[in-house]
């Protein structure tokens, strides 16, 4: 597997904690009935939970575009050191960006 595809796999797997962190935080700040219900009313949460929601949406919005670019370079045989370095940079910059929660 090429470095480009490994980076794409890492980004796809990064979606798992991004999906669960905001939901688990909301359950922690309310009660389990919120998590089991239809969630009409959102509980009061600290700003970092809202930031985690925005980071999750941003990641999912951009993951498709990143995946298309990486997969096109793979299918057309144009992946090289430049695309590998670019893929690594995307991973290295996206994951720590989520961990920074400015208020």
TrEMBL record:
<keyword id="KW-0472">Membrane</keyword>
<keyword id="KW-0812">Transmembrane</keyword>
<dbReference type="InterPro" id="IPR023352">
    <property type="entry name" value="MAPEG-like_dom_sf"/>
</dbReference>
<dbReference type="InterPro" id="IPR001129">
    <property type="entry name" value="Membr-assoc_MAPEG"/>
</dbReference>
<keyword id="KW-1133">Transmembrane helix</keyword>
<dbReference type="GO" id="GO:0016020">
    <property type="term" value="C:membrane"/>
</dbReference>
<protein>
    <submittedName>
        <fullName>MAPEG family protein</fullName>
    </submittedName>
</protein>
<dbReference type="Pfam" id="PF01124">
    <property type="entry name" value="MAPEG"/>
</dbReference>
